[in-house]
C-alpha cells in the first residue's frame, strides 16, 4: 500500500517535470462536427475571414470552432490556410480599390419622380478592410513564413523549378516539331 501511495505522489511531480499535463483522448461526440460542417466552415472562413459568419453558415457555435482549433492540429492548419486565402483576397481587393477606386451613382429626381440628374461618385472606403488586415496581419504573416505555407506558395523554389522544367519541355517539343 505504501508503494501505491508513493507512486500516486510521484505522478504529479513527473508531470510537472515534463512541463505539461497528460493528454486525455476522448471519443468524438455524436453531435459534434461533421465533415460537411468543417468543409462549410473553412470555405466560408476563406471567403469572409469572419469566424462568426463561418460558424453561422456551418451551423456550429463560434466557441466550438475555437475549441476545435485548439484541440485539432489538422483543423488548426486548415484554419490558417483558409485565413491566408481570405487575407490574400482582402489584399487583392485593396489593391483594386487603391488603383481604380469604387463608383456609386447618385440619382436626383424632380417633384414628379422623373430623373433630374445623375451623378457618378468615385470614392475609397477602406476602413473595414484595413481593420481586417490589421487584425489578422500577424497571424497570416506567421503562417506565410512557416514551412507548410512555403511549399504551397506559387513563388516557392519547388514550384518555380517545376514550372521551369515544364517550359523547357515545351521548348524542346516546339524545337522538335519546328514551330
Automatic annotation (TrEMBL):
Source organism, top-level taxon: Bacteria
Region described as Disordered: 1-33
Protein name from the UniProt record: Terminase small subunit
Organism from which the protein derives: Sphingobium xenophagum
Amino acid at each position: 500500500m505504501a508503494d501505491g501511495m508513493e507512486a500516486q505522489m510521484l505522478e504529479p511531480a513527473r508531470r510537472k517535470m515534463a512541463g505539461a499535463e497528460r493528454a486525455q483522448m476522448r471519443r468524438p461526440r455524436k453531435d459534434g462536427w461533421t465533415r460537411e460542417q468543417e468543409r462549410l466552415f473553412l470555405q466560408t472562413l476563406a471567403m469572409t475571414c469572419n469566424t462568426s459568419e463561418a460558424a453561422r453558415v456551418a451551423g456550429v457555435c463560434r466557441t466550438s470552432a475555437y475549441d476545435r482549433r485548439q484541440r485539432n492540429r489538422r483543423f488548426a492548419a486548415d484554419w490558417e490556410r483558409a485565413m491566408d486565402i481570405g487575407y490574400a483576397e482582402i489584399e487583392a481587393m485593396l489593391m483594386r480599390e487603391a488603383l481604380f477606386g469604387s463608383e456609386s451613382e447618385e440619382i436626383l429626381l424632380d417633384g414628379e419622380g422623373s430623373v433630374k440628374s445623375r451623378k457618378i461618385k468615385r470614392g475609397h472606403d477602406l476602413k473595414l478592410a484595413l481593420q481586417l488586415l490589421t487584425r489578422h496581419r500577424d497571424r497570416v504573416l506567421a503562417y506565410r513564413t512557416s514551412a507548410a505555407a512555403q511549399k504551397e506558395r506559387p513563388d516557392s523554389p519547388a514550384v518555380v523549378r517545376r514550372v521551369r522544367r515544364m517550359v523547357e519541355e515545351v521548348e524542346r517539343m516546339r524545337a522538335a516539331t519546328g514551330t
